[in-house]
Design brief:
It is built from 10 helices and 12 strands. It is an alpha/beta fold. It folds into 3 domains: about 70 residues, no CATH class; about 45 residues, no CATH class; about 200 residues, 2-Layer Sandwich (Nucleotidyltransferase, domain 5). A hairpin with a 6-residue loop joins β5 and β6. The longest helix is centred in the last third of the chain and has 17 residues.
């Protein structure tokens, strides 16, 4: 059996569509074969959870027998693997111009998983920092965190995600430095409460620190529980759908208001640039919650009111001594 391009961009957009293709292969195609039937599946990588990616995962974890092969036109050494058809750089450029669509080129020729034309965050927008200014910088305002809660701790459920940032400066000079190693793991409700308490007691001990927790349906119980335990948390009711909330952060990312560490946020960045394609988006949700809540908190502040920053006596920075990060 040879299955050639049994998926397309449209059929992989929804989990229902992806499940339908997978169940068709497992429930109808494979049982129609005999003992010595060989199955060959050919296609492009359209989604992290597409048929080919599911089969790849099963092969790599030895859940099924088989071999997975990838042959992008240009390999990891920037060498063309089809010299007979594209003997030189000009031939490649001519082919790319003929395609005249960057997404199609990346997907069809380079076998990269590319979101549809409605991609929210682009890789070249991401700006990095080499050194964190630290919490002793005169422009330091506090450590903020955005928390996206998962309802279940089952393997198939989403992760509870926490993204941290240091906030610096004021008004148009404000900068948000995302901290490395955000949290993403499957935990139940009591463990979520313990995690928030631990974060507050170890990483966010100052009065100027902010813990933003999504407050929708089941999640409304957590801020109340934290308050009962004396843990300060701000309940945030999200506005709009996930895509809209992430899109609201795009200007701050592209303009460099938000900066990322060079190491330690790979999974978060993957979810941001692959939103709509990545299998999980928990870190992206926590990120958008953090950024939008931070922006809303400081949007209306005026320079004339900035006599001091911080909330503790030993962290107070008077306006006359104030210094922006950039």
């Amino acid at each position: 059996f040879i299955c050639d391009d049994v998926e397309d961009v449209q059929s992989t957009k929804t989990r229902e569509g992806r499940n339908k293709t997978y169940n068709w292969l497992r429930g109808e195609v494979i049982p129609a074969g005999d003992k010595n039937t060989r199955l060959i599946i050919v296609g492009n990588l359209l989604h992290e959870d597409s048929l080919l990616m599911r089969i790849r995962g099963e092969v790599e974890t030895e859940q099924t027998s088989g071999t997975f092969k990838m042959y992008p036109l240009i390999d990891s050494n920037d060498e063309c693997i089809w010299k007979g058809k594209y003997p030189d750089e000009k031939a490649l450029e001519d082919e790319k111009k003929k395609v005249a669509n960057e997404n199609a080129w990346q997907r069809e020729y380079l076998l990269r998983i590319i979101p549809d034309d409605d991609q929210v965050i682009y890789p070249d927008w991401i700006q990095y920092y080499d050194e964190l200014p630290g919490d002793r910088h005169k422009g330091y305002r506090g450590t903020y965190a955005g928390v996206d809660l998962a309802i279940s701790a089952k393997d198939s459920a989403d992760d509870t995600a926490v993204v941290f940032a240091h906030i610096y400066s004021r008004c148009e000079k404000m900068r948000i430095y995302i901290l490395p190693n955000p949290i993403a793991k499957k935990i139940n409700f009591p463990e979520q409460v313990d995690l928030m308490k631990n974060i507050r007691n170890t990483q966010m001990t100052k009065r100027s620190d902010e813990l933003f927790v999504e407050s929708v349906a089941y999640q409304e119980a957590l801020p109340q529980m934290l308050e009962h335990h004396g843990i300060k948390a701000t309940a945030i009711k999200p506005k709009g759908d996930k895509r809209t909330r992430l899109a609201l952060t795009s200007t701050a990312i592209k303009s460099g208001i938000i900066k990322f560490p060079r190491q330690g946020c790979e999974q978060l960045i993957e979810q941001l640039v692959g939103f709509g394609v990545e299998k999980h988006d928990d870190l992206a949700d926590a990120f958008s919650l953090l950024i939008n809540a931070t922006m809303e908190k400081h949007t209306k502040e005026g320079t004339i009111l900035m006599f001091f920053l911080g909330g503790d006596d030993d962290s107070t920075v008077y306006y006359s001594d104030y210094v922006d990060v950039e």
